[in-house]
Amino acid sequence: MSKRPNIILILNDDMGYSDIGCYGGEVETPTLDRLAAGGLRFSQFYNTARCSPSRASLLTGLHPHQTGIGILTYDSGPEGYAGNLNQQCVTIAEVLKGGGYRTYMSGKWHVSSNLLEPTDSWPLQRGFDAFYGTIIGAGSFYDPNTLTRGNSNAEHEARADGFFYTDAISDQAVRFIRDHHAEHPDKPFFEYVAYTAPHWPLHAHDEDIAKYKGRFDAGWDTLREERLERLVKAGVLADHWKLTPRDPSQPAWTEAEHKGWLLRCMEVYAAQIDRMDQGIGRIVQQLQDNGQLDDTLIIFLADNGACAEDIPEGVTIDELVEKLMIARKHTRSGEPVHFGNDTKRMPGPENTYQSYGTAWANLSNTPFRLYKHWIHEGGISTPLIFHWPAGITAQGAIRHSPGYLPDVMATLLDVTGIPYPAQYQGRAVLPLEGHSLQSAFERDVADRPPMFWEHEGNAAVRVGRWKLVRKHPGPWELYDMVADRTELNDLAPRQAERVREMQAQYDVWAERCGVKPREQIVALMRSQGVTRAFWEDE
């Protein structure tokens, strides 16, 4: 193909595997469903279990530790954990820009430790021609901290009537596309759209929340069963994979207290995703208006599994607001913001700061277990949609080819024919770690190199059908992903030799990529006085 496609890479934040309509969920996502129906859905694509590491890996085609972001964007010590996108990696934007693309970003950055002043790890310094969004990883949807345009603070823009961050991300993405079409009609573009929805806090518009009144009344137990049934019927999951038990820390829905408040939490969460889909609809409409939809590769995925954590416990409001910069003490009109999951206060408005909890996250990750942070399937499984009419002839097909975040860079370079550099601006960069998925555009491809993960001591290696996984500080577990993708039958006690072989592969990878023992990182964070909530194992 002689013409290079436009590329739009859409990433959302803290959404479970089965939340959107085309992956079995109850949330109304007509735009994403339409893209899936006109393109491909991948059933076995994986992220890296946490916000910053996933973004670093997605943007660079490397493993997070190689980029300097082994955990989050707070300095946790040694090389690989500095919390800052380093100089031994190169971003998709940098590589595509060198191949003639214009590059734009709208949304959450979260791969820089300096939140207030431009550094060499900010978007414009890492290959983007234009940027609008937040440098930090979470915050109020009505008044986000670190809102930035280019290299300049733009928090005043949130004072405009009707400002809502999800809408602002979408609207800016549309403007970038429209302006590019007018000013650079002969150049392809790459646009990275990084939503913060549906990451807490639970903020949404009343009209969006109202759409979901009654939709979740059956409760998490029944809804988990219904989601799995839809996923199997659609061919996304195999019919012999069993639903994992309800999280043992959570009650049966019939025994749950405060049902009105619990339902409202899930209704707001659904509304957050709904609002994002509306914005993606405007992006798609702008491409149609420009006559560019057929020649644009659109990719959609999530940065980790659903989040079971509450607003960080053991962290003061002053720390949330002043140090971590992920909240505001007051609304724009001066009302105090109420922090925490108070069942007497319904989430949604600007003066609340709440999360939807473990039981709903368990629903979001149906049929898998565990969540964001962990490398079991619930922590790393994501929807993945590819839509590109000019380059993908299959419509509505499902691909079971396994893949993970480093593969995105490799796929985009394969599609565009732009080579990955050995050096960038005079500095050496690490070799690409990913494996192109372009062959899966036509058919399922089972063979691929092993895949590796590590986050906060939680770790895994997948080789073919076998997955060796560990929930820190527990022992290694072994699962057959063909027979038992929901990880219910640990084969490690019966296959000790396979465990040893795969653990040896993992150890070689971990040494090569700079993974440090969890205990070493925890000791360092403790000595530095890092807030306990950010290093204490859960």
Would you give an account of this structure?
The strands form 4 sheets. Strands 1, 2, 3, 4, 5, 6, 7, 8, 11, 12 and 13 form an 11-stranded mixed sheet that branches. The chain has a 4-stranded antiparallel sheet with strand order 16-17-18-19, with helices on one face. Strands 9-10 form a two-stranded parallel ribbon. The mean pLDDT is 95. The chain has 14 helices and 19 strands. It is of the alpha/beta class. It has helices spanning 30-37, 51-60, 64-67, 92-98, 165-183, 206-210, 219-234, 259-290, 317-323, 358-364, 377-380, 406-416, 496-513, 518-527, and strands at 6-12, 40-46, 102-108, 130-134, 147-149, 152-153, 189-194, 296-302, 338-339, 352-353, 381-387, 397-399, 403-404, 423-424, 427-428, 451-455, 458-463, 466-470, 476-480. Strand 16 (451-455) and strand 17 (458-463) form a beta hairpin. It is globular. Helix 7 (219-234) packs parallel to helix 10 (358-364). 29% of the residues lie in helices and 16% in strands. The chain has one domain (7-443): Alkaline Phosphatase, subunit A (3-Layer(aba) Sandwich), CATH 3.40.720.
